[in-house]
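User: Please fill in residues for this 383-position structure.
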């Protein structure tokens, strides 16, 4: 189990709203960012799963260029995860402080999951204040330390689904709808309010994915209308078995998309989210009238992406690569071998493997770094 830090009474100051009276600001970044990662948190996500996701995210370098929005399924989820989010923010701040005062060896920086503070060094280009929270008069960060002011990292924000979808748009069409569907009803308000602030957007599933690197780098040089999607690992394996000719044919005809991670230009993602919401309503209405089977996100998304007319204003890019599944990389194999199989991938899928084993493997690697082992209580407990 994760060892929690001693509880701190945070009721002294009320949580600061993130944007226009909505949301919660967990951490105010040092400057305005041009990218945003929106991670949806379903009701069945556990403390351990969110902690591992956030810990890997903070170390991946994504937050050096992007703000992070956590989208919670219910009003009860946000308070439940409050201590986890703040603990990982505190650990990140301590990592930044310690690494900024030491020189990490080049050997460590070449290893998977190592923390590279150089990614968070502020460039010469001036940037405005963060979009989120109250404006401050002096500096852009919350910390007056000069060494911190020279760093660059994004904000961490949380929204409840009811804040971004107050009318519960899907309730009139579906009796029960999981977060995988409702999140699409939340995106229009969120992206509408920040449409002029971000150039690139990533949509990611906390339950199923772990970010190990700068995944947004894949779309940074693409057009604002672009949307990048990945094939499901099962389809990729099937295509490889039947050769390149059949692979090309399958890619063109039936391309099963991995909905756990989608990214692209802000305009493309915004248009995709609007179209997806309309298709969910259309599919739900048809299911009621024709008594069809349950409406699923994967089914609707794949059907939408196959309709060129509905997405005529979106430049869809279908990657032939899949997000590697941890359970198929051989979790019971030697740790060094599994970590080697991770290398080169900015994101991995948790799969159906034993989550505790994956957490232990990742933490064993993190705790092997001298500076990092003194920051995380998990490492201190084992020393």
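Assistant: Residues filled in for all 383 positions:
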């Amino acid at each position: 189990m994760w060892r929690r830090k001693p509880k701190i009474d945070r009721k002294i100051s009320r949580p600061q709203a993130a944007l226009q009276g909505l949301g919660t600001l967990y951490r105010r970044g040092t400057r305005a960012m041009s990218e945003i990662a929106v991670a949806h948190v379903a009701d069945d996500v556990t403390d351990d799963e969110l902690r591992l996701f956030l810990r890997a995210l903070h170390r991946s370098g994504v937050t050096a260029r992007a703000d992070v929005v956590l989208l919670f399924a219910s009003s009860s989820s946000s308070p439940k995860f409050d201590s986890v989010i703040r603990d990982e923010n505190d650990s990140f701040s301590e990592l930044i402080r310690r690494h900024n005062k030491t020189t990490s060896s080049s050997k460590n920086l070449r290893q998977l999951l190592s923390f590279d503070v150089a990614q968070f060094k502020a460039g010469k280009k001036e940037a405005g204040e963060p979009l989120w929270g109250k404006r401050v008069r002096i500096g852009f960060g919350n910390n007056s330390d000069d060494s911190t002011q020279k760093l660059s990292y994004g904000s961490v924000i949380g929204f409840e689904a009811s804040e971004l979808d107050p009318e519960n748009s899907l309730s009139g069409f579906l009796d029960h709808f999981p977060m995988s569907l409702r999140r699409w009803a939340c995106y229009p308000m969120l992206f509408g309010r920040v449409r002029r602030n971000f150039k690139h957007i990533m949509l990611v599933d906390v339950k199923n994915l772990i970010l190990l690197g700068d995944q947004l780098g894949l779309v940074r040089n693409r057009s604002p209308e672009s949307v990048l999607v990945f094939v499901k690992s099962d389809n990729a394996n099937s295509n490889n078995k039947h050769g390149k000719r059949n692979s090309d044919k399958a890619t063109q005809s039936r391309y099963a998309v991995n909905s756990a991670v989608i990214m692209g230009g802000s305009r493309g993602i915004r248009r995709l989210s609007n179209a997806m919401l309309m298709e969910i309503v259309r599919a739900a209405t048809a299911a009621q009238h024709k008594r069809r089977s349950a409406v699923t996100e994967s089914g609707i998304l794949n059907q939408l992406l196959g309709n060129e007319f509905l997405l005529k204003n979106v430049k869809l890019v279908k990657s032939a690569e899949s997000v590697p599944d941890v359970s198929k990389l051989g979790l019971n194999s030697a740790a060094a071998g599994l970590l080697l199989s991770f290398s080169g991938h900015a994101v991995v899928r948790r799969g159906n493997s034993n989550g505790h084993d994956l957490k232990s493997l990742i933490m064993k690697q993190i705790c092997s770094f001298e500076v990092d082992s003194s920051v995380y209580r998990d490492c201190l407990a084992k020393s």
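For context: The first strand starts at residue 24 and ends at 27.
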